[in-house]
Description:
Order of helices and strands: EEEEEEEEEHE
Helix content: under 10%
Oligomer: single chain
Distance between the termini: 37 Å
Number of helices: 1
Strand content: over 45%
Amino acid sequence: xxxxxxxxxxxxxxxxxxxxxxxxxxxxxxxxxxxxxxxxxxxxxxxxxxxxxxxxxxxxxxxxxxxxxxxxxxxxxxxxxxxxxxxxxxxxxxxxxxxxxxxxxxxxxxxxxxxxxxxxxxxx
Length: 124
C-alpha cells in the first residue's frame, strides 16, 4: 500500500489550500481515511477522518474551517483547508485503515503506513 499526500505550500493567514491523498494498492471504499498534522517540534495529531460510510469527524482546532472528502472511484481523499492560521503550519500526512475514525484521530490506533506527507506553511 502506498499513500502520497500533496497540495501543500506557502499561504498567508486566512488563505486556503486543498490537500490530496492518493492511495494505491488497495480499494479505498472499505477504508477510513484520516489526516494528521505534525507541527514543528511537536507530536503528530489527528486532524480529520472520514469513514467508509462517509461519516466525518474533526479535531476541535479545525472544526468549521476544514472539510474532508473522498472519491472512492479515484482512490483519493481530500482535505479542504480554509481560514488557515499560522498554528496550522506543519507536515500533513494521510492514512487509510480498517478502523473507527475516533480511534484513528486519537491515535488509539496508530496507522501502519503514514505515507509521504506534504508541508503546509501559513505566514502571519
